[in-house]
Amino acid sequence: MHVLATQLAGLDEADQAVDLGHSPAEVVVLSFSDSDLSALAAAWPLDADLLPGLRLASLKRLRHPLSIDLYVDNVVSRAKVVILRCLGGLDYWRYGVERLADAARDHGVLFAALPGDGRPDPRLSSASTLPRESLALLDRYFGAGGPDNMRQALRHVASLLGRPMSWAPPAEVAPLTVTTAPPQDDRPTALVIFYRANLVAADMAPIDALVTALAAQGLAPVAVAVSSLKDPAVEAPFTDLVERYRPAIILNTTAFSALREDDTTILDQAGVPVLQVVLSGSDEASWRDSPRGLSPSDMAMNVVLPELDGRLLTRAISFKQE
Protein backbone atom coordinates (compact mmCIF):
# COMPACT_ATOMS: atom_id res chain seq x y z
CA MET A 1 0.00 0.00 0.00
CA HIS A 2 1.25 3.42 -0.95
CA VAL A 3 -0.01 6.37 1.06
CA LEU A 4 0.70 9.95 0.05
CA ALA A 5 0.29 12.48 2.84
CA THR A 6 0.27 15.88 1.24
CA GLN A 7 -3.04 17.01 2.67
CA LEU A 8 -3.10 20.69 3.33
CA ALA A 9 -1.83 21.82 6.69
CA GLY A 10 -4.11 24.10 8.69
CA LEU A 11 -2.66 27.42 9.76
CA ASP A 12 -2.40 26.43 13.39
CA GLU A 13 -0.81 23.01 12.96
CA ALA A 14 2.54 24.27 14.21
CA ASP A 15 0.75 25.03 17.49
CA GLN A 16 -1.18 21.76 17.73
CA ALA A 17 -0.13 18.13 17.77
CA VAL A 18 -1.52 16.03 14.92
CA ASP A 19 -1.44 12.31 14.22
CA LEU A 20 -1.11 11.59 10.50
CA GLY A 21 -2.63 8.17 11.09
CA HIS A 22 -0.14 6.31 8.91
CA SER A 23 0.39 2.60 9.22
CA PRO A 24 4.00 1.34 9.11
CA ALA A 25 5.81 0.66 5.83
CA GLU A 26 9.27 -0.54 4.90
CA VAL A 27 10.25 2.80 3.32
CA VAL A 28 9.34 6.25 4.65
CA VAL A 29 10.16 9.55 2.96
CA LEU A 30 9.70 12.93 4.62
CA SER A 31 10.22 16.32 2.97
CA PHE A 32 9.13 19.94 3.09
CA SER A 33 8.96 19.87 -0.71
CA ASP A 34 5.62 18.93 -2.23
CA SER A 35 7.49 18.41 -5.50
CA ASP A 36 9.58 15.66 -3.88
CA LEU A 37 6.49 13.92 -2.58
CA SER A 38 4.49 14.31 -5.79
CA ALA A 39 7.36 12.92 -7.87
CA LEU A 40 7.66 9.91 -5.57
CA ALA A 41 3.90 9.38 -5.68
CA ALA A 42 4.06 9.34 -9.47
CA ALA A 43 7.09 7.04 -9.58
CA TRP A 44 6.07 4.34 -7.09
CA PRO A 45 3.21 2.78 -9.14
CA LEU A 46 5.56 2.20 -12.08
CA ASP A 47 7.28 -0.63 -10.18
CA ALA A 48 4.71 -1.21 -7.44
CA ASP A 49 4.85 -5.02 -7.67
CA LEU A 50 8.61 -4.99 -7.13
CA LEU A 51 9.04 -2.22 -4.59
CA PRO A 52 8.64 -2.22 -0.81
CA GLY A 53 5.71 -0.39 0.75
CA LEU A 54 6.06 3.38 0.91
CA ARG A 55 4.81 6.15 3.18
CA LEU A 56 5.21 9.82 2.27
CA ALA A 57 4.81 12.66 4.75
CA SER A 58 5.06 16.42 4.48
CA LEU A 59 7.18 17.98 7.19
CA LYS A 60 4.78 20.91 7.12
CA ARG A 61 2.42 18.62 9.04
CA LEU A 62 5.07 17.53 11.52
CA ARG A 63 5.98 20.79 13.22
CA HIS A 64 4.83 20.11 16.78
CA PRO A 65 7.23 17.97 18.88
CA LEU A 66 4.40 15.63 19.88
CA SER A 67 3.45 15.17 16.21
CA ILE A 68 7.04 14.16 15.52
CA ASP A 69 7.10 11.79 18.50
CA LEU A 70 3.90 10.09 17.34
CA TYR A 71 5.19 9.63 13.81
CA VAL A 72 8.55 8.31 14.97
CA ASP A 73 6.95 5.82 17.37
CA ASN A 74 4.20 4.65 15.02
CA VAL A 75 5.93 4.70 11.63
CA VAL A 76 9.63 5.55 11.57
CA SER A 77 10.70 3.07 14.25
CA ARG A 78 9.05 0.23 12.30
CA ALA A 79 10.52 1.13 8.92
CA LYS A 80 13.60 -0.35 7.26
CA VAL A 81 14.64 2.75 5.31
CA VAL A 82 13.84 6.38 6.15
CA ILE A 83 14.76 9.27 3.87
CA LEU A 84 14.52 12.84 5.13
CA ARG A 85 15.06 15.82 2.82
CA CYS A 86 15.56 18.75 5.13
CA LEU A 87 15.08 21.93 3.12
CA GLY A 88 16.34 24.85 5.15
CA GLY A 89 18.94 22.74 6.93
CA LEU A 90 19.14 20.94 10.24
CA ASP A 91 18.28 23.99 12.34
CA TYR A 92 14.85 24.31 10.77
CA TRP A 93 13.79 20.82 11.90
CA ARG A 94 16.42 19.99 14.53
CA TYR A 95 14.17 18.11 16.93
CA GLY A 96 12.85 15.92 14.13
CA VAL A 97 16.32 15.11 12.82
CA GLU A 98 17.48 14.15 16.29
CA ARG A 99 14.44 11.95 16.94
CA LEU A 100 14.77 10.20 13.57
CA ALA A 101 18.49 9.64 14.10
CA ASP A 102 17.92 8.18 17.57
CA ALA A 103 15.16 5.89 16.30
CA ALA A 104 17.34 4.72 13.42
CA ARG A 105 20.15 3.75 15.76
CA ASP A 106 17.83 2.12 18.29
CA HIS A 107 15.88 0.08 15.73
CA GLY A 108 18.47 -0.62 13.05
CA VAL A 109 16.82 1.61 10.44
CA LEU A 110 18.77 2.78 7.40
CA PHE A 111 18.41 6.56 7.71
CA ALA A 112 19.35 9.13 5.07
CA ALA A 113 19.26 12.80 6.09
CA LEU A 114 19.68 14.85 2.92
CA PRO A 115 20.25 18.60 2.55
CA GLY A 116 18.01 20.54 0.22
CA ASP A 117 20.32 23.27 -1.03
CA GLY A 118 22.94 21.36 -3.01
CA ARG A 119 25.62 21.76 -0.34
CA PRO A 120 26.95 18.92 1.82
CA ASP A 121 25.93 19.23 5.47
CA PRO A 122 28.22 17.29 7.83
CA ARG A 123 25.63 17.47 10.60
CA LEU A 124 23.01 15.73 8.48
CA SER A 125 25.55 13.23 7.20
CA SER A 126 26.60 12.35 10.75
CA ALA A 127 22.96 11.77 11.70
CA SER A 128 22.54 9.30 8.82
CA THR A 129 23.08 5.55 9.11
CA LEU A 130 22.94 4.80 5.38
CA PRO A 131 26.26 3.88 3.71
CA ARG A 132 28.07 6.95 2.40
CA GLU A 133 27.83 5.90 -1.26
CA SER A 134 24.06 5.41 -1.09
CA LEU A 135 23.65 8.67 0.82
CA ALA A 136 25.46 10.59 -1.92
CA LEU A 137 23.48 8.81 -4.65
CA LEU A 138 20.13 9.61 -3.04
CA ASP A 139 21.18 13.23 -2.64
CA ARG A 140 21.83 13.39 -6.39
CA TYR A 141 18.48 11.77 -7.23
CA PHE A 142 16.55 14.21 -5.05
CA GLY A 143 18.65 17.15 -6.22
CA ALA A 144 17.81 16.39 -9.84
CA GLY A 145 14.17 15.68 -9.01
CA GLY A 146 11.28 14.53 -11.16
CA PRO A 147 9.42 11.19 -11.39
CA ASP A 148 12.12 9.50 -13.51
CA ASN A 149 14.85 10.18 -10.96
CA MET A 150 12.55 9.25 -8.08
CA ARG A 151 11.79 5.95 -9.79
CA GLN A 152 15.49 5.12 -9.89
CA ALA A 153 15.91 6.26 -6.29
CA LEU A 154 13.17 3.86 -5.17
CA ARG A 155 14.76 1.04 -7.15
CA HIS A 156 18.09 1.73 -5.45
CA VAL A 157 16.41 1.71 -2.04
CA ALA A 158 14.76 -1.61 -2.88
CA SER A 159 18.17 -3.06 -3.71
CA LEU A 160 19.41 -2.01 -0.27
CA LEU A 161 16.69 -4.21 1.18
CA GLY A 162 17.88 -7.21 -0.80
CA ARG A 163 15.46 -7.00 -3.70
CA PRO A 164 16.94 -7.86 -7.12
CA MET A 165 16.53 -4.40 -8.61
CA SER A 166 18.75 -2.53 -11.05
CA TRP A 167 18.80 1.25 -11.24
CA ALA A 168 20.09 3.96 -13.54
CA PRO A 169 22.24 6.88 -12.40
CA PRO A 170 20.52 10.24 -11.86
CA ALA A 171 19.60 12.22 -14.95
CA GLU A 172 21.31 15.45 -14.03
CA VAL A 173 19.61 18.78 -14.67
CA ALA A 174 21.36 22.12 -15.07
CA PRO A 175 21.46 24.02 -11.74
CA LEU A 176 20.14 27.15 -13.50
CA THR A 177 17.72 27.30 -16.42
CA VAL A 178 16.29 30.39 -18.09
CA THR A 179 12.68 29.58 -18.98
CA THR A 180 11.49 32.99 -20.18
CA ALA A 181 13.74 35.57 -21.82
CA PRO A 182 12.14 38.30 -23.96
CA PRO A 183 14.14 40.25 -26.53
CA GLN A 184 16.39 42.81 -24.88
CA ASP A 185 14.99 46.30 -25.46
CA ASP A 186 14.54 49.52 -23.51
CA ARG A 187 12.19 47.99 -20.94
CA PRO A 188 13.58 47.47 -17.40
CA THR A 189 14.36 43.81 -16.75
CA ALA A 190 12.63 42.02 -13.88
CA LEU A 191 14.39 38.82 -12.85
CA VAL A 192 11.96 36.17 -11.55
CA ILE A 193 13.60 33.36 -9.58
CA PHE A 194 11.89 30.08 -8.72
CA TYR A 195 12.77 26.52 -7.76
CA ARG A 196 13.77 24.08 -10.46
CA ALA A 197 11.42 21.61 -8.78
CA ASN A 198 8.48 23.65 -10.08
CA LEU A 199 9.80 23.31 -13.61
CA VAL A 200 10.44 19.56 -13.31
CA ALA A 201 6.97 19.00 -11.85
CA ALA A 202 5.31 21.23 -14.50
CA ASP A 203 3.96 23.33 -11.62
CA MET A 204 4.47 26.61 -13.42
CA ALA A 205 1.09 28.35 -13.24
CA PRO A 206 2.09 30.87 -10.53
CA ILE A 207 5.35 31.76 -12.28
CA ASP A 208 3.67 32.08 -15.66
CA ALA A 209 1.01 34.36 -14.17
CA LEU A 210 3.66 36.51 -12.50
CA VAL A 211 5.64 36.83 -15.73
CA THR A 212 2.49 37.82 -17.63
CA ALA A 213 1.59 40.45 -15.02
CA LEU A 214 5.08 41.96 -15.07
CA ALA A 215 5.05 42.20 -18.85
CA ALA A 216 1.67 43.93 -18.70
CA GLN A 217 3.25 46.57 -16.46
CA GLY A 218 5.90 47.39 -19.04
CA LEU A 219 8.72 45.26 -17.64
CA ALA A 220 10.81 42.66 -19.45
CA PRO A 221 10.56 39.56 -17.22
CA VAL A 222 13.34 36.96 -17.27
CA ALA A 223 12.27 33.78 -15.44
CA VAL A 224 15.02 31.60 -14.00
CA ALA A 225 14.76 28.16 -12.40
CA VAL A 226 17.43 27.33 -9.81
CA SER A 227 18.20 24.26 -7.74
CA SER A 228 18.80 26.52 -4.73
CA LEU A 229 20.21 29.98 -4.17
CA LYS A 230 22.80 28.35 -1.89
CA ASP A 231 23.92 25.77 -4.45
CA PRO A 232 27.54 26.60 -5.38
CA ALA A 233 26.86 25.38 -8.92
CA VAL A 234 24.37 28.23 -9.39
CA GLU A 235 26.86 31.02 -8.67
CA ALA A 236 28.76 31.19 -11.98
CA PRO A 237 25.74 30.99 -14.33
CA PHE A 238 23.85 33.46 -12.14
CA THR A 239 26.72 35.94 -12.34
CA ASP A 240 26.68 35.61 -16.13
CA LEU A 241 22.92 36.11 -16.12
CA VAL A 242 23.15 39.32 -14.09
CA GLU A 243 25.87 40.70 -16.34
CA ARG A 244 23.83 39.90 -19.45
CA TYR A 245 20.43 41.24 -18.41
CA ARG A 246 21.34 43.93 -15.82
CA PRO A 247 18.03 43.54 -13.94
CA ALA A 248 16.35 46.59 -12.46
CA ILE A 249 14.56 44.47 -9.86
CA ILE A 250 14.49 40.85 -8.65
CA LEU A 251 11.36 38.94 -7.62
CA ASN A 252 12.29 35.82 -5.69
CA THR A 253 9.92 32.96 -4.90
CA THR A 254 12.41 30.57 -3.26
CA ALA A 255 12.12 30.03 0.47
CA PHE A 256 14.47 30.29 3.44
CA SER A 257 17.58 32.46 3.79
CA ALA A 258 20.36 32.33 1.21
CA LEU A 259 22.99 33.91 3.45
CA ARG A 260 26.51 32.59 3.01
CA GLU A 261 29.20 32.44 5.67
CA ASP A 262 30.32 35.99 4.82
CA ASP A 263 26.76 37.31 5.39
CA THR A 264 26.20 37.98 1.68
CA THR A 265 23.86 36.29 -0.77
CA ILE A 266 24.15 35.45 -4.43
CA LEU A 267 21.50 38.10 -5.16
CA ASP A 268 23.57 40.97 -3.72
CA GLN A 269 25.74 41.25 -6.81
CA ALA A 270 22.83 42.67 -8.81
CA GLY A 271 22.69 45.71 -6.53
CA VAL A 272 18.91 46.08 -6.92
CA PRO A 273 15.88 45.63 -4.66
CA VAL A 274 14.85 42.02 -4.08
CA LEU A 275 11.13 41.41 -3.56
CA GLN A 276 10.06 38.22 -1.80
CA VAL A 277 7.00 36.66 -3.46
CA VAL A 278 5.22 33.94 -1.48
CA LEU A 279 4.07 30.64 -2.96
CA SER A 280 2.03 29.53 0.04
CA GLY A 281 1.99 25.99 1.35
CA SER A 282 -1.55 26.46 2.73
CA ASP A 283 -4.92 26.71 1.02
CA GLU A 284 -6.46 30.05 0.13
CA ALA A 285 -9.53 29.62 2.34
CA SER A 286 -7.40 29.16 5.46
CA TRP A 287 -5.31 32.18 4.51
CA ARG A 288 -8.40 34.34 4.07
CA ASP A 289 -10.08 33.12 7.27
CA SER A 290 -7.06 33.45 9.56
CA PRO A 291 -6.52 36.79 11.34
CA ARG A 292 -2.78 36.35 10.92
CA GLY A 293 -2.88 35.35 7.26
CA LEU A 294 0.05 33.08 6.45
CA SER A 295 0.62 29.87 8.37
CA PRO A 296 3.53 29.54 10.83
CA SER A 297 5.48 27.48 8.30
CA ASP A 298 4.91 30.05 5.56
CA MET A 299 5.89 32.86 7.91
CA ALA A 300 9.16 31.15 8.79
CA MET A 301 10.08 29.93 5.30
CA ASN A 302 8.85 32.84 3.21
CA VAL A 303 8.93 35.89 5.49
CA VAL A 304 11.20 35.69 8.53
CA LEU A 305 14.18 33.86 7.01
CA PRO A 306 14.16 35.74 3.67
CA GLU A 307 14.09 39.02 5.61
CA LEU A 308 17.49 38.07 7.04
CA ASP A 309 18.77 38.55 3.50
CA GLY A 310 17.21 41.99 3.22
CA ARG A 311 14.40 40.92 0.90
CA LEU A 312 11.23 43.02 0.86
CA LEU A 313 8.02 41.07 1.45
CA THR A 314 5.23 41.44 -1.10
CA ARG A 315 2.36 38.95 -0.76
CA ALA A 316 1.20 35.44 -1.50
CA ILE A 317 0.39 34.86 -5.18
CA SER A 318 -0.51 31.16 -5.06
CA PHE A 319 -1.92 28.58 -2.67
CA LYS A 320 -2.12 24.82 -2.42
CA GLN A 321 -5.21 22.96 -3.53
CA GLU A 322 -6.56 19.55 -2.54
What count of domains describes the coordinates? 2
Average of pLDDT? 90
Distance between the termini: 21 Å
- Classified by CATH, the class of the largest domain is Alpha Beta
Q: Which structural category do the helix and sheet elements fall into? A: alpha/beta
CATH topology of the largest domain: Rossmann fold
The residue ranges in which pLDDT falls below 50 over 5 or more consecutive positions are 1-13
Query: Which shape, going by the Cα principal axes?
Result: globular
Assigned CATH architecture of the largest domain: 3-Layer(aba) Sandwich
Radius of gyration: 20 Å
Largest sheet descriptor: 6 strands, mixed
Number of strands: 11
Strand order of the largest sheet: 6-8-7-9-10-11
Please give the count of helices. 11
Question: Portion of residues in helices?
Answer: 25-40%
Topology as a string of helices (H) and strands (E): EEHEHEHEHHHEEHHEHEEHHE
Beta content comes to 15-25%
